[in-house]
Specification:
By secondary structure, this protein is of the alpha+beta class. The chain folds into three domains: 155 residues, no CATH class; 109 residues, no CATH class; 112 residues. It is 38% helix and 23% strand. The chain has twelve helices and 17 strands. It has a five-stranded mixed β-sheet with strand order 2-3-4-5-6. Helix 3 runs antiparallel to helix 4 and helix 9 runs parallel beside helix 12. The longest helix has 25 residues. The chain is elongated, with a radius of gyration of 30 Å.
Length: 395
């Protein structure tokens, strides 16, 4: 019915939205996400289709619906964790109720401050909308059109769809890639302004798959294992592991993600998880190497945290300066500080440039990753070499 009505007029109601046929007379449920245009859009649809339109919104904080009839909002319900706002149901809407007992229970639950999840279920039952429970409306346009029509869901798209926002791109990635990556053990962790992160822990260490969005209309896949460093970046690029997609629309984004997921499964994850971490005895390196080296300059180890890698702990030496070695939580890396100054490449370049200018062996680098005790010993030896130069020269 809705499909026939939409086909009669290509400009029925401009916009991009879904209409879902409910029981009794047609109930159009508008799924346009723009909060500014939703009321106007739903009102127009109710007039054009001569029916009742329900705009239903459900998220982690609340669910809400507004009923529109003849271009006017006639009733609304909004139920959150700690509040209830409701005009309840106007008499004109009573004929639309599919289950009167569920409707009575809905009213009872709303008045008794029941959990929002319970009231949403009763609302859907009351109006015969159970098939749509738990449906993520903003992702409907990713679904197969034939399957949607079998569910009596019609998609109406404006001719010039708006450009995807960063947040919309992130939401598509989480929705489209999340289930697959979860099946591989990678949990959705978070999203920042320029990336979406999925994380897996193996023996307490972090293995990460990141979708980077730093470049406009482009998604780049990067991987990070516990001992990841700059050499890995170069290796990944040289061997074709750095995959990316360009897109202009959401459909192109989804198609690109499908190909990226194949690459992740066949190439990315096997390489990522091949970088296994070994059991390490970090304390033996501090006792056998760092302690005697710094003791020559009057330094004594005054603090050694337990479980250095698990907790991101520190090892502290006191002398003329305070020297701190801080381990990166769940990674095979550490950072060194001298009197709270990060003793890294940039510090060394500025403070010791003249001393190192003609000595290639002293060219500084950030802490490389390590995956066993011997590699940790080698990294610490490099740092101690720089530290001894600093402690000897004073700059």
């Amino acid at each position: 019915m809705l499909r026939n009505q939409l086909n009669k007029d290509a400009n029925l109601v401009p916009g991009s939205y879904f209409l879902i046929e409910g029981k009794h007379d047609t109930i159009g449920i508008s799924l346009e996400e723009s909060t500014k245009s939703i009321a106007k859009l739903a009102a127009k649809i109710s007039t054009k289709l001569d029916t009742v339109v329900i705009n239903l919104k459900d998220n982690d904080l609340f669910w809400a619906c507004t009923f529109y009839r003849d271009g006017t909002a006639v009733s609304s319900i909004r139920h959150g964790y700690d509040s209830l706002q409701s005009d309840f149901i106007e008499e004109v809407l009573l004929p639309l109720i599919a289950d009167s007992s569920a409707y009575e229970e809905l009213l009872h639950q709303l008045l008794s401050s029941a959990l929002k999840g319970q009231t949403l279920i009763k609302f859907l039952q009351a109006f015969g909308l159970e098939p749509y429970q738990g449906m993520e409306y903003r992702f409907l346009e990713l679904e197969d059109r034939d399957e949607l029509e079998r569910k009596h869901i019609v998609f109406y798209e404006k001719s010039n769809p708006k450009k995807l926002t960063v947040r919309a791109i992130q939401d598509v990635i989480v929705h489209h890639a999340g289930e697959f990556l979860q099946s591989k053990g990678y949990r959705y962790q978070n999203k920042t302004n320029d990336r979406v992160l999925f994380l897996k822990q193996i023996n307490g260490y972090r293995y990460e798959i990141m979708f980077n969005l730093a470049t406009k209309q482009c998604v780049v896949i990067t991987y990070m294992h516990p001992s990841f460093d700059e050499e890995d970046i170069e290796w990944l690029q040289q061997h074709g592991y750095t995959r990316f997609i360009h897109f202009a629309t959401q459909i192109e984004l989804v198609k690109g993600l499908d190909q990226l997921l194949i690459d992740i499964a066949e190439v990315g994850i096997p390489w990522l998880e091949s970088n296994e971490m070994e059991d390490m005895d970090l304390l033996s390196v501090y006792e056998g190497l760092v302690d005697p080296t710094l003791a020559k300059y009057g330094y004594e180890r005054t603090q050694t945290d337990d479980r250095l890698i698990d907790t991101g702990g520190i090892v502290v030496y006191q002398g003329k300066y305070t020297i701190v070695f801080q381990h990166v939580v769940m990674r095979g890396k550490f950072r060194a500080y001298v009197d709270q100054i990060h003793f890294d490449e940039y510090f060394i370049r500025s403070q010791m440039a003249a001393h190192m200018m003609n000595d290639e062996k002293l060219v500084p680098v950030d802490s490389r990753g390590f995956k066993n005790t011997e590699e940790f010993r080698k990294e610490m030896s490099k740092y101690l070499h720089w530290l001894e130069c600093f402690l000897t020269t004073g700059y």
